[in-house]
Amino acid sequence: MGKAFSKPTVLNDTMTHYCPGCTHGIVHRLVAEAIDELGLQERTVGVAPVGCAVLAYNYFDCDFQEAAHGRAPAMATGIKRVRPDLIVFTYQGDGDLASIGMGEIIHAANRGEKFTTIFINNAIYGMTGGQMAPTTLPGQRATTAPMGRDTDATGMPIKMSNLLGGLVTPAYVTRQAVLKPQQINKTKKAIKQAFQYQVENKCFSFVEVISTCPTNWGLTPVDSLKWAEENLLPYYELGDIKTPE
Amino acid sequence: MAKVLMKGNEAIGEAAIRAGCKNYFAYPITPQSEVAEYLVKRLPEEGGVFLQGESEVAVGYMIFGAAGTGERVMTTSSSPGISLMSEAISYIAAAQCPCVFVNIVRCGPGLGGILPAQGDYFQATKGGGHGDYRLLVLAPDGVQEAVEMTMQAFTLAEKYRGPVMILGDGLIGQMMEPVEFPEDLATEPINNDDWATNGMSTRKSKKRNLVKSLFLDPTDLNNHNLALKAKYDQMGREDIQFEAYNTDTDYQVLITSYGTMSRVCRTAIDSLKEEGIEVAMLRPKTLFPFPEAAIYDAATKDSCKTVISIELSMGQMVEDVERCVKGQRPVEFYGECGGDIPSPEKIIDIIKGII
Predict the structure, then answer these.
(1) How many domains does chain B have?
(2) What is the ipTM of this complex?
(3) What's the rounded Cα separation, in Å, for the pair B12 and B31?
(4) Helices within chain B (DSSP H only)
């Protein structure tokens, strides 16, 4: 009888720096499984963001570049344009992608760049210690919104997938979550589909993943999953927002 | 090859192609947009990549990403645009990726003006971005030299695995001059498999490569900075370029000047010679590494009483000249930075005033 479960080849056998209960580990594994299953390891270049996933390259055994804050989509554009044979993905958080990197992601998506973006949305800045993100919910507390996000002063949370899905250029844009096993399976399918579109040179592909941040939310890992389910999912609805067909 | 009459900006674009660069990313800005308008036509003929980015910030990182694969890549911009690219230049220098930035300098600060200037000397040579890095900076004095330096820039970028800047100005970009493209300046691309993120399958080792600038361990980071400094020191030993003009005479005054301004100085020196006044010029062609010893030697010649740095700035390179002269001679300065270029007559008056 063969092995029923094993570590993806492209995932390194190493401790991560992520906090207990953080869902980055799950998403890293899903990305690694997709790369493995599509046989892409040897021609994949990842682009790490600035934020919690800045050290992502320590966990993936494939070529990697490390961008400045928010600039991963521009870097990925440079890589993919000059080497279209490579498989390129960016892995970005919500501060990186939806705040400082807003210009880069919109224009990359609008040009229909043939790379894949994995967007981790946990509604807060993680690495810098729990500041308010563009995705922070109304009333949600953050170190720079100690009384909770005041939408009169800071506007409403940005729904990145809906924003990108509103562009006319064909793309694959989907919002998934990793709070329950069933959601994790769906996210896996979405990530694999996103890479598949890139393999087919079809379109820009974008997978938003609703995630948790127990440390900066001040909740236990289990309570974080519950909080995200009850608070994030009603605002950030799951499902495909746009497909290229 | 016969000479052809070309506008500086177009000649720079053609020189990049002749040097084997097939990748160009840029954002429009006066006075250099003709490079993009030229290359959008020429690069497809060569099977190359042309992309107009959404901002100079993004273009800086497109260059970074492309350079990280080991492919030859270039952008061109002008002063305010280079300010925006300076973030990326710092990262690229840290991550050690070869690429070429061309700055067709206009007047500043701020929006300044669109006419020629040399006010970006500090930015280019002292680091426009953050941290301990240096750019190898080539300063052409006309269209022919802009062509030659653009071609050399790719070889130097690969030699030192880092960004190289061409510091021109609006005049060099806009004027037409007869040029030729020396074939011997085109070099074959080198193998970058030991560091470039060009896919594990392409290299024998099958080990993955990382292009990064983050070193959280203080010892690692210090060692990284020492390695970068070793490259900058090597540039100083091996790749200083300068022109010495009329230095075989008993000159009373030594001019230091570069780029467009140096051409006017050369005319002034020729006129003064006819009047029996000998003046020499030391023209740095590399602004970093700086021709320190050459300037010291020329300034301390017995006949030389005074050094004067003449620039299209409010006094930038003069600080390096003072550093090189080490107090052995008085160092004067004359500069204009509104977009007008001083006439030879003006320079002659200035020189006569200090004799």
Answers:
(1) 2
(2) 0.97
(3) 13
(4) 8-18, 33-45, 56-68, 79-95, 121-126, 143-160, 170-174, 218-238, 259-274, 292-299, 317-325, 344-354
Of B57, B87, B197, the CB nearest to A45: B197
- Chain B residues in contact with A74 by the CB 8 A cut-off are 53, 57-62, 64-65
pLDDT in tens, A15-46: 999 999 999 999 999 999 999 999 999 999 99
Euclidean distance between CA atoms B1 and B14, whole angstroms: 14
CB–CB of A31/A87 below 8 Å?
no
Q: What is the pLDDT of residues B93-118, one digit of tens each?
A: 999 999 999 999 999 999 999 999 99
Residues of chain B found within 8 Å of residue A57, distances taken between Cβ atoms: 210, 212
Domain count, chain A: 1
Asked if residue B308 lies in contact with residue B322, where contact means CB atoms within 8 angstroms, the answer is: no
Is there a domain that residue A160 lies in? yes
Cβ distance of A64 and B197 shorter than 8 Å = yes
Say whether A68 and B49 touch across the interface (CB within 8 A): no
Exposed, middle or buried: residue B258 (CB in 10 Å: 0-12, 13-18, 19+)?
A: buried
Contacts A–B by Cβ distance under 8 A: 127
Whole-angstrom distance, CA of residue B296 vs CA of residue B327:
10
Q: What is the per-residue pLDDT for A4? A: 84
CATH number at residue A77: 3.40.50.970
Partner residue opposite A63 with nearest CB, options B23, B54, B208: B208
B58 chain-A contacts, CB cut-off 8 A: 71, 74, 77, 103-104, 107
| A15 assigned to some structural domain | no
* CATH classification at residue B324: 3.40.50.920
Q: Would you call A120 an interface residue with chain B, using a CB distance cutoff of 8 Å? A: no
Summarize pLDDT for B40-94 with one digit per residue, the tens: 999 999 999 999 999 999 999 999 999 999 999 999 999 999 999 999 999 999 9
Mean pLDDT computed over B311-319: 98
Q: Which domain holds residue B316?
A: 243-354
Is B252 found in the same domain as B232? no
Asked if residue B193 and residue B54 are part of one domain, the reply reads yes
CATH of the domain at B15: 3.40.50.970
Residues of B with CB under 8 A from a CB of A: 23, 25, 49, 51, 53-55, 57-69, 71, 73, 87-88, 91, 95, 197-201, 206, 208-214
The string of pLDDT tens digits covering residues B139-174 is: 999 999 999 999 999 999 999 999 999 999 999 999
